[in-house]
Amino acid sequence: MDSLRILIIEDSLTDFKLMKRHLEAHFSPTISWVSTPDQMTAALEESWDLVLADYNVPHMEFERTLKTIKGRHPGLPVILVSGSVGEEQAVEFLKGGMADFVHKDNLARLAPSITRALNEAAEHRARVAAEESLTRSERRFRSIFDNAPVGIAIGEIESGRLLEVNNVWLEIFGFRREEVIGRSGGEAGIYMSGVQRTAIVKHLREKGRMLNEPLRLKRKSGEVAEVLCSAEILTIGPSCYLQMMLTDVTEELKTRNALAASQETLRKLYVAVNQSPTGIVISDRKGAVEFVNPRFSEMTGYAAEEMIGRNPQTIWQSLCEDGEVWRGDFCNTRKDGTTYWEHDIVSPIRDQAGEVTHYMAIKEDISDKRAMEEQLRQSQKMEAVGQLAGGIAHDFNNIMQIIASNAFLQSLENSSRGVETQHLDEICKAVEHGSSLTKGLLVFSRKTPVALSFLNLNEVVQQSRKLATRLVTEDIVINTTTSAEPLMISGDTGLVQQIIFNLVTNARDAIKGPGSITISTQRIENASLLPHGCEAVGQSFALLSLRDTGHGIPEEIRGRIFEPFFTTKEVGKGTGLGLAMIYGTVQRMNGCITVESPAAGGTEFRIFIPVAEAEQAADELPRMTERLGTGELVLVVEDEDAVRLALTQTLTFSGYRARGAASGEEALEAARRNPGIALAVIDMILPGMNGMETAQALRMINPSLPVIFLTGYDHDILEDRGIKAVVQHKPIQSARLVAQVREILGKAG
After folding, report:
1. Domain boundaries, the chain
2. What is the pTM of this model?
3. Which among 526, 569, 524 has a CA at the least distance from the CA of 550?
4. How far apart are CA 304 and CA 300, in angstroms?
5. In CATH, what number does 400-445+622-749 get?
6. Dist. CA 29–CA 27, nearest whole Å
7. Buried b (16+ CB within 10 A) or exposed e, 619-658
8. Higher-pLDDT residue of 391, 454
């Protein structure tokens, strides 16, 4: 045994020496001897392996000494060596912590007693150390358990009764400890369904453990907790327990889902911006471009890499300097130098502090829209012109009617007296020419349908040449070449002239400087000689050709020139309707039109119109040399006094009794007073009751009353309204009117 440090408390030196001898005989001790309280107090400051104490030491009662020693060194063995202590008292000391009792008369027992005491002390120290170690381990485990960053719960495997839960577990579910300890998780309501825990246990028994499996549980509040669950079955002795470790990822999942939603939104925005039908440009606050979308590149011809970093829109900052959105239209230039119109919306982009960090411009190419708006304005302008033309034509027709009627009357009077009527015939021809012009105005204003008549194309060309020369500049010469024989067609003089004038105007615009325009006609006898694609129907055709020395028409647009509103002229210099109207007019005359423009320059329009049959071409007006009427009463309803007077005089001169009425009301009054009215000539445009209403009212009085309408409407429109009547278009040739009256009254008789 190693050297023992032994403290002896003894007041007798003899007894001390005796004990020392026994000790040295069995051990290798280091011995200290004290006999007073102060000496003992000082000695207890040191470390000892054993204390031998006498019972009767002055001022040192053994029971107090034992308490003092145990208080300072709880594991230090104390042996009472005395000759005056009884057995019962010694037992009490043993209960108080004394290691053993040796009688001074039996010191032979001292060595074995010391050995046993030292062994017990060693065992005690080992046990205490083990207990302290266990306690420290338990404390560490408890600290780890309670302060773990994940929720931990331990419960019985079969019943599910919770034995321990840590703080994080309680925080996850919102419970207090006393609300769950001793209860199962199902009773606490943490599972979404009754089979959830059963499925977890089954999984553990089959696979041994569960690691970070996503799980949905319920909090005390009823909210869903998204957790990652790791679990295993613990076997402690005969019992099995379920240990679950839960990581709350609810907020993380919300953040992740929000991030995913944000990313999806950004993806959609990116796709929307890149697929936007409008150009989008984003710049920094100084105007340097940071982004352009593909549509911008399509509009401008600039690729994205050509624009990034450039500063083409320094005006944005000034436009949005007040933080307002700016909208406007302006003309821009593409990379290839061509111009286009765009509509821009420029808006500032702000950060969370409200500071402008960028600008965004949304650009829309509105070139087509502006062109359509311009076409609409031109169309509206033309509509207004048409309305005006219609009104003028109506009034002009009345004037022409007065002239024609009076010239006719004077011609009849001169003829009856044998006086020359050449000058009056010229007046009638002029009225006829004016009538064709007026008819053109009415067609243009949609006031009357196109009424085709038989005319000589050569004469129309020659008549049109003089006016056509006024449409061109002095350095442009107009030549006309017509066929030797008449070219009779079914057409309209005014519209044919419009064709010629429109083509002459276009040719003038195509000629830069001196040049010439050649208008010619010829007869085509064989339909096989018509150009390919020409659908004109007939055996022989009149060809009207107009050729100029202008710059020509590019091949790429040649196929579009007859489209409505298509024009190559500058804004304000063309409506895009001229050639479209020509095309429609030619089709109405059952013809076709072609255009040729050789590379050398110049343009030639060729119009093919079927030639009218000879018997159809005869359309001579009857010559009135005698009275045709036999006193029949004719009612003339016309609000223009001069027109009404001219018509009544013409009918009176022709042998009829004519009675005039300025309105529908006067006409009804006249019909009531004169039941013998044989025929009514009624103007369609009357104040108050219009012409059709007047005719209907007159037929209420006389159902069989024949009516001749003076109007711009055709027969179909009247028949659609239930009125069957003869129509004469103003200005009416007097001979034709009288002949019509004679024909109707002859049938009635």
Report:
1. 4-128, 148-253, 276-365, 400-445+622-749, 450-619
2. 0.43
3. 569
4. 11
5. 3.40.50.2300
6. 6
7. eeeeebeeebbeebbbbbbbbbeebbbbbbbbbbbbbbbb
8. 454
